[in-house]
Amino acid sequence: MAAVIRSVRRSSAALVLIASSVLAQADAGVASTPTGPLPPPTAALAQVTDFGRNPTGLQMHLYVPKRVQRHPAVVVALHYCTGSGPAMFAGTSYASLADRYGFVVVYPSAPRAGHCFDVSSPAALTHDGTSDPVGIVSMVRYVERRHHADPRRVFATGISSGAMMTNVLLGDYPDVFRAGSAMSGVPFGCFATTDGSGWNSACANGKITRTPEAWGDLVRAAYPGYRGPRPAMQLWHGTADDILYYPNFGEEVKQWTNVLRTGLRPTRTDHPRPTWTHTVYTDRSGRVAVDAYSVAGGTHNVAFDEPGLARIAVEFFGLTGHRGQG
């Protein structure tokens, strides 16, 4: 665990330092949604205890906007190493987007040393295991009960460690999550260890490569026997990421295009901004199943350095009134 703290601290410290300014400048320049700075959140962040099964002692914070839909969607916003749910609330625009579109945001916190989510242990990489994913799903179930949230519209998004957990949640719980958006992450199972360590250097350094089918098999093995629909995935990665190296982006694309049976040839490719290469992979029904953004020169902080990613994620989830992934 000490290794992960040292390796991610450079990135996470930068995230914390710029967090106070991100809310004012984020989300500009997205053509299909209202542009310009979002106002600060209008409601308070609340801590929730006793929300259900929680084997690793995660903490839960919840944002419910003053004007919420009758059966709101749920967005789970997952922090980076050294971060927390309140840091994600303060440093990203999901709460302000919730004010605008009437969904609820869950902010989990990993209180263990280093404040990284468990994406490595066998218990984390299985449906109904005994690690962090179970507690996060308990948070979702709490919101569904308490706030009458729509179980058909539950989404996950995260940065770094939170991006890795987004991959894990979509693999472990395809019956819970409709879609995810992972910003600077790695494929499901890439960080797996069996020695109790939470850090996998080979994966972090982009040294683990597999065939699409082998990556897909890791996801399918997390929930043996599951035959239902699989959640769509949006992926973001900077080519200059020196924490979770850029080759992980290609491996994520291989994994999720296999899981979602789209094939590796994109349906379309475009460049929404000069440094962005956007590839879209649709399934047989025409749904956008994998939505991938490569950012030339982008660092591990791409979620903060590139304005608008939170809004694009929420649009991909279909929560802004536009088509999105569904």
Structure description:
The chain is of the alpha/beta class and 326 residues long. It has a single domain (2-316), classed as 3-Layer(aba) Sandwich (Rossmann fold), CATH 3.40.50. Helix content is 33%, strand content 17%. It contains ten helices and ten strands. It has helices at 2-25, 85-91, 94-101, 132-146, 161-172, 201-204, 212-222, 247-259, 302-305, 309-316, and strands at 45-48, 59-63, 74-78, 104-109, 154-159, 179-183, 232-238, 268-270, 276-282, 288-295. A ten-stranded mixed β-sheet has the order 1-2-4-3-5-6-7-10-9-8, sandwiched between helices. The chain is globular, with a radius of gyration of 18 Å. Keywords: Hydrolase, Signal.
**What class would the helix/strand composition place it in?**
alpha/beta
Beta content: 15-25%
The N- to C-terminal Cα distance equals 38 Å
Low-confidence stretches: 1-34
Strand adjacency order, main sheet: 1-2-4-3-5-6-7-10-9-8
The helical percent reads 25-40%
Mean model confidence by pLDDT: 90
Biggest pleated-sheet summary: 10 strands, mixed
Number of domains: 1
CATH topology: Rossmann fold
Tally the helices: what do you get?
10
The tally of strands reads: 10
Basic shape: globular
CATH architecture, by name, is 3-Layer(aba) Sandwich
What Rg do the Cα atoms give? Answer: 18 Å
Q: CATH homologous superfamily, by name? A: Alpha/Beta hydrolase fold, catalytic domain
